[in-house]
Design a protein that fits this description.
Elements: H1 2-15, E1 27-36, E2 42-52, E3 58-60, E4 76-79, E5 83-91, E6 102-103, H2 117-120, E7 133-138, E8 145-150, E9 167-173, E10 178-183, E11 186-191, E12 195-204, E13 207-214, E14 219-225, E15 229-232, E16 236-244, E17 249-253, E18 258-259, E19 266-267, E20 269-272, E21 277-283, E22 291-297, H3 300-304, E23 308-314
Parallel strand pairs: 1-5, 4-9, 12-16, 15-23
Antiparallel strand pairs: 1-2, 2-3, 5-7, 6-8, 8-9, 10-11, 12-13, 13-14, 16-21, 17-20, 17-22, 18-19, 22-23
The structure holds copper (II) ion (CU).
Copper (II) ion binds next to loops.
């Protein structure tokens, strides 16, 4: 009888979709603030990020983030199985309008949608001055990927102000700790802990907006517009490219090739539409050596408007 019950329950567990299976992981306690920059643009700023593990011990990783607000906003890194409680403060001077965070990719209940009651029929899920709002996310199994988060309420209660600078990146790493990459000419499983640098490039109209997550010194560095990126020859580097706004783009990096995740297609260019995103791993300078390797949007009008930068690979010697 016992065997029969076990067989039945094991079979049921195996039949559950991955997102419904039991998960364990860390809990991220995050506070972000939305502010107005001197330029008049809006931005998110990291106030506090603590990670609690299953045993209840807590690590404060706030020091890994830039102290100042940035565009794109702070890059939040989770692992499949983790949960997050993200509290947003409205710190936009001279405004009493609601501001929010709407996230893509991970799971959340309707009260963490980051929209106004006119859309979600539940509540105004936004922060007001002196009245923060907390969102709860679950990076369930099956949600690994690079995802955007952005405002959905400020200025326009249906659309929000992502195009004014209120956007950022969520990276959910797979629980396996490995991702596929084209390394030394072969498709291999790359250990995430071997990735030295992550470059996040948002393609907004005719400008790249960048952020580096440097895993060597555990720091995030805002790179602002059309940045120069740097890596040492042979370092494993992950790019995350995300579209924003109204334009369609073609991302191209000189001298390097990679695989489209989940396929064996080898690329050096891909299309990026609004909120479409791709990530890929390369070995800096593989087969081509050091150099100022150009990256750019391949839409000619965007190139002519300066949508480009350099990936500077420094010789390992
Ligand atoms: Cu473009």
């Amino acid at each position: 009888m016992l065997k029969k019950i076990c067989m039945t329950s094991c079979l049921m567990a195996a039949l559950l979709p991955v997102w419904a299976q039991a998960e364990t992981g860390n809990t991220h306690l995050i506070t972000l603030k939305a502010v107005k920059l001197d330029s008049g643009q809006l931005a998110y700023q990291m106030v506090s990020h603590k990670i609690q593990d299953d045993s209840g011990s807590e690590e404060d990783i706030t020091g890994r983030y830039a102290k100042e607000p940035s565009i794109p906003g702070p890059t939040i890194v989770m692992t499949e199985g983790d949960k997050a409680e993200v509290t947003l403060e409205q710190g936009i001077k001279d405004s009493d309008k609601p501001v929010s965070i709407h996230v893509h990719g991970v799971h959340y209940k309707i009260d963490s949608d980051g929209t106004m009651k006119m859309l979600n029929q539940v509540a105004d899920e936004a922060a007001f001055p002196g009245k923060p709002y907390t969102y709860k996310w679950t990076a369930a199994l099956g949600t690994a990927g690079t995802w955007p988060y952005h405002d959905h309420t400020f200025g326009n209660p249906k659309l929000g102000s992502e195009d004014k600078g209120l956007y950022g990146t969520l990276i959910v790493n797979p629980k396996s700790g490995q991702i596929p990459g084209l390394i030394d000419g072969e498709i291999k499983q790359v250990n995430l802990k071997d990735i030295k640098r992550e470059f996040i490039l948002w393609m907004h109209e005719t400008t790249f907006w960048g952020m580096e997550v440097n895993n060597i010194v555990n720091r995030q560095v805002p790179l602002w517009t059309n940045p120069s990126l740097g890596a040492r020859e042979g370092e494993l580097v992950r790019f995350h490219v995300i579209g924003l706004g109204t334009a369609f783009h073609t991302f191209h990096l000189h001298g390097h090739h990679w695989i489209q995740p989940g396929t064996t297609h080898i690329l050096d260019t891909f299309n990026v539409g609004p909120i479409q995103r791709e990530s890929f791993v390369i070995k800096a300078g593989e087969g081509v050596g050091p150099g100022h390797w150009h990256y750019h949007c391949h839409v000619l009008q965007h190139m002519q408007s300066g949508m480009m930068g350099a990936f500077m690979v420094i010789g390992s010697k």
